[in-house]
Write a structure and sequence with these properties.
Blueprint (H helix, E strand, L loop, with lengths): L5 H4 L17 H18 L6 H8 L3 H8 L2 H16 L13 H16 L2 H11 L6 H10 L1 H17 L8 H21 L8 H19 L3
Length: about 220
């Protein structure tokens, strides 16, 4: 057998590339962290939850949590956005959906009502209302990740329908606020105050039908 040249026999094996911070994140771990954060923030409040608790609940290390989200504020914002995207997916606001505009508005209203009356949303709303519970920066983070995202998406849909001649709305931003305020109705306030539980599906259906019809009477093409 021919021996390799001396230089080849002493050649060191090629080193594997080091795993750095730029490597792809584990999406399964990210999802587990988000789910743990959603549950814990809703149950314990922002100040009542530590990154250690979230890591333990998700079954990952605290370092992994920080690697994915940076800090607790960013994780809170991501958890709020994830909850909104889960219950109010972007597909609901697509402009060229099949079916009538009324059906699309009803679908958005139903998803929004289910979101705001969920246990997590009610708990988060109560947490946000306690003076001194969280700082103004975090409140703004919550608003941008949740309500503002929804209002912007709906306003864009309304503007597209105005351009198509389906709606007549002089100010789509105001109309968006009006729509979601009407959908909240009295029930959301009563639930937040602990005065009632989940409404009956039949009552929710009647409320949404009446609200969508009122909105279309105000802004529908004449």
């Amino acid at each position: 057998m021919v021996s390799p040249p001396p230089s080849a026999s002493r050649r060191k094996p090629t080193a594997k590339p080091a795993s750095g911070p730029g490597r792809p994140k584990d999406l399964g771990k990210r999802a587990a962290i988000l789910e743990a954060a959603k549950q814990l923030f809703a149950r314990e409040g922002f100040n009542g939850v530590s990154m250690d608790q979230i890591a333990a609940e998700a079954g990952v290390s605290k370092l992994t949590v920080y690697s994915h989200f940076g800090d607790k504020d960013a994780l809170f914002a991501a958890a709020v956005q994830a909850k909104c995207e889960e219950m109010l997916p972007d597909a609901l606001f697509e402009i060229e959906l099949k079916g009538s505009l009324r059906d699309q508005l009803k679908a958005i209203a139903q998803a929004f009502f289910a979101l705001i009356t969920s246990e997590e949303a009610i708990s988060t709303h109560r947490m946000m209302m306690v003076p001194g519970n969280i700082d103004d920066k975090l409140k703004q983070t919550f608003w941008e990740a949740g309500p503002q995202r929804t209002h912007d998406a709906f306003a864009a849909l309304l503007q597209a329908q105005v351009a198509k001649g389906e709606l007549d709305i002089p100010d789509v931003a105001t109309a968006s606020v009006q729509f979601f305020t009407l959908i909240k109705g009295e029930v959301h306030a009563r639930m937040t105050c602990g005065l009632c539980g989940q409404p009956r599906p039949a009552d929710v259906g009647r409320h949404i039908d009446a609200t969508v019809d009122m909105f279309l009477r105000a802004y529908g093409r004449r």
